[in-house]
Amino acid sequence: MEITVADVLAMGALRDAKLLAGKQGSNNVVKGITIIEVPDIVDWVSGGEILLTSLYNVRLELSSLRDYIGKMAQKGVSALIIKTGRVVEEIPREIIQAGDEFGLPVIELGKEVRFIDVMYPVMAELFNKEVSKLQYYKQVQDHFTELVIAGEGLDGIARVLEELLGNPVIIYDKDYKAMTAADSRLTSFEEVQDSTERENLNDKFYYYRQEVIFPEIHDFPASQVVIPIQQLNQINAYLVVVEKNKKLADMEYVILENAATVISLELVKRFAISEVERRFKNDLLDSLISGNILIETALERAAIIGWDLNDSYSIVLMEFADINDYLTGKKQRTNFITEVGSTVAKVINEYTKHYMRISSDSLYVLWPAKGRDEAGVVADIKKAALKISAIFAKRYPKMRISTGVGSIALQIKDIAGSYREAKNAISIGRIMDEDFVSFTELGVMRMLCMLGLNNDLTEFIPRSINNLMVYDKENKTNLLNTFEVFLQNNSNATSTAKELFVHYKTILYRLEKIREISGIDFTNHKDRLEAELGLKIVSLLKNRK
């Protein structure tokens, strides 16, 4: 409890003092007491003081006394005690009238009472109150520190706060998502006043009170005391007390200050633990895809963080091209990594649980495949990749996402191989101008692409296909395309004619021309295989260009 003017009047030497004016200010809080040594002392008070004077140093015209008292009230002076019998026999009527007008208590002190007899008891009481506050502060701080040491976390802090304050407590993250709350109905609220109308409770720590309603409790109205939790000049959380049962008392703000500090420490601890855990997970994943880890060691490390590596997995690798068009600084890159990680994780979680490792321009995922056929797994991965690409196409239209999928690794030792396949799939996809490539679905194209990574594929084009290419170029025809469509339709001339929107006899004419130029026997299996491979090589070379 704070000391008020009424409390001071009940103290020893002041029991016989007379309250002549400003009775409405009897509950003014007293924070200090001092003597008026010079008239302009009013300019130096900070509020909450009792001023003692005999009016010896207050040499003002009677007409100026009203303004002098008004200035005291404006500066937050709690009361004015005037000693009579030495300088003045009675307090000027102008002072009494001004005291009533401005609500400033004016107290008459008899000439036999010394100022020191008034000051000592008040200062002693103020000192005792401060000592009590410090003791209480220490008790609360010790209590919260024990909670942190015991690992009670935010739930424990909120629970103890509710017991101490007698009101519900909620801790939100910086996006106002509840991290802990005893009553989930109170986590969602609507403000009913403008932010400029909030009651400021502490200029230093930016505590404030605001009026809200709770939709989940039939628009129940209540006030909230909000304490932003700052770390490195950034708000990372909010401690909110819902004054559902009672208004907070002044001493209870001591509890909140302690709680804010402890919550900040808890958040730092959480961050430190998550950072260590993240690095541990990343190191394990990197070891798995590199193959530089013993199976027993991998299983032991996975068990520590609750991972089951006895499952089968397919590696999904995603690479982000042209992101430098959007990222100019370290902070932007960090934000981009965070955004990508949360977006990708959210989409993949629609399909399966997973383990992910992300860097500045790529990420890879261990996609569980236990008990599923490879085609079904690849189909889900492709759906997820398309969703992810669609999301980022809106935010970063110039950025291109390439996705490669490795074959299913049935054992831990096979994970590194699946990763290499996923990486090769992306390289092959760039040759084929494809953003999504599954290594196992490439078939013969896989062999051709791998061959083309280190060789000039032009020399592998069969003479028959080369002859058609030369003829098309010299005569401005498109027989090569007709032949390719013909093979894709299982050598069915009718289907080929429909797909190319030409007459059936036109197709027969073209096929005869193709036989004549290329020398290919359509009934010869060897000729057909050679021609199909040649067409795929031509397609790869076009894409590479």
Any key phrases for this structure?
545 residues, alpha+beta, Udp-n-acetylmuramoylalanyl-d-glutamate--2,6- Diaminopimelate Ligase, Chain: A, domain 1, Beta-Lactamase, Alpha-Beta Plaits, 7-stranded antiparallel β-sheet, 5-stranded mixed β-sheet, 18% strand, PucR_C-HTH_dom, CdaR-like_regulators, Purine catabolism regulator-like protein, CdaR_GGDEF
Largest sheet, in brief, is:
7 strands, antiparallel
Q: How many domains?
A: 4
Number of strands: 17
Structural class: alpha+beta
- What is the oligomer described by this structure? single chain
Beginning-to-end CA distance, first to last residue: 83 Å
Low-confidence stretches: none
CATH-level-4 superfamily name of the largest domain: Reverse transcriptase/Diguanylate cyclase domain
Portion of residues within helices: 40-55%
Gross geometry: elongated
CATH class of the largest domain, named: Alpha Beta
What is the number of helical segments per DSSP (H or I, 4+ residues)?
16
Indicate the CATH architecture of the largest domain.
2-Layer Sandwich
CATH topology of the largest domain: Alpha-Beta Plaits
- The Cα radius of gyration reads 41 Å
Strand content: 15-25%
Mean pLDDT: 84
